[in-house]
Specification:
This protein is 74% helix and 0% strand. It has 495 residues and is mainly α. Helix 17 packs antiparallel against helix 18. The termini are close together.
Amino acid sequence: MRLKLLVTCLLTVSFLGAMDHTVVSTSLATIAGELGALQYMSWIVVGYTLASTVLLPVFGKLDDILGPRKIFLAALCVFLIASLCCGFAADFSWLIAARVVQGMSAAGLQLMSQTIIARVTTQRERPRYMAMIGAAFPVAILVGPLLGGLITDQWGWQWVFWINIPIGVIALALAIFALPQLESQHTPRGFDIAGAGVFTISLVALILGITWASDQGASLPTVLALAIGLFSLGLFLWIETRVPEPMIPLRVFRNRTVAAATALSAIIGVGLFSITAYLPTYIQMAYQTSITVSGLVPIATVFGMLCSNLFTGWWASRTGGYWMFPILGTALGAAGLSAMALLPVGQPLWVPMVIMAVVGVGTGAFMNLIVALVQGAVPVQQTGTITATVNLVRQIGSTVATAMIGVSIAASVAGLLPVGLDAATLTPQQVHAAPAAVQAEVAQIYTSVFVPVFTALAIAYAVGILAALCLPRGRLSSAPAGVPQGTSKPVITQS
């Protein structure tokens, strides 16, 4: 019973953290308009995402030093306070600062939920519970924008943040009761302060540079940010080889499971998470649909991901077998994206919906399974670090690929549009109101522009097949992560 309450708590907070990525999307214009800062509207999302990404490796190392219970409870309390402050924001600076703190604490909630599952379940049980926790993300994508719009219309945008408070307080009470004392498994030899600082500078500079590149092109701030980011990244790698307690121990990548699973995690970010942001635009322009209807394709993608994620987690826990899922999943992803690249103009909308659902099914087949695999491939005292690394690689891959795709689409469309249409101001409404010949030409342009994008992402998934083949064969054991089978039992057993 205690394990069920704990899983309920972890699922709840994971859902809250994931929802705050998506629930504000339909409220952005309202929030920015009331606070008088429309030009900084994107920072409501960027501040949250950037903070949650940067803090992942820090929380991973703190987990290994302090244990996940203290960090989880502290992060949940900070998240609730930050949510309260977001709703009371009197100006945009206040809101952005509160969103940054909220994003930082959300990183702790996301990561600790996964490491706690690793510490209280056996390797055999872990995929099922990891799939349940991981289901929070696709569900948040599906319901977040709709829920945010309803809350804003009925109660005001402040309740987009305040709705976290009652749910979070219940989760906190469950955590205090159900979460066991999970202390650190080793005595730390200090904290990698230099590595944490340099990594933060590197990641912030890289993300800002990539974001600016998609908006401004090769401007001076973009070049400087990318240069600082790359230099800091090189310095960070140098530091990690010389400190006794590195933020990311590079030697763990000598482990075949860790190296292959990390590559697969990056491919998820590059191959699927990046393209979902542009699917509605592609459908609106190439299929001449409304904004509402264009959302059906990413919804089909996410729904396929959700279903296969839950099924493969259940199956892996039931049978102990896992090796086939990453191989089949990457193959389905490569096949689906190749089909999207070959899709001719004028197909019914259900065709891309089915194809992208297949890509979602393929990705969900190994999305959370690989996290469970890497947790079982390292000593228990490195569970937090390796879990953070896998999540971090996925987010960085998504961010970099999203920006690169945006630059590619913008440049290609601008060079192909007929005279009289400006790529900088072109909207789906303008195209839909244009003569049929212009609509057909724009549809052909967007189809041709997205062909190399889908092809490149299909190649990424094809590389993922090779990475999946590198995973060692075997079956999940009944021992916790990092503990030889038969020497220990999980902290919590099912009742």
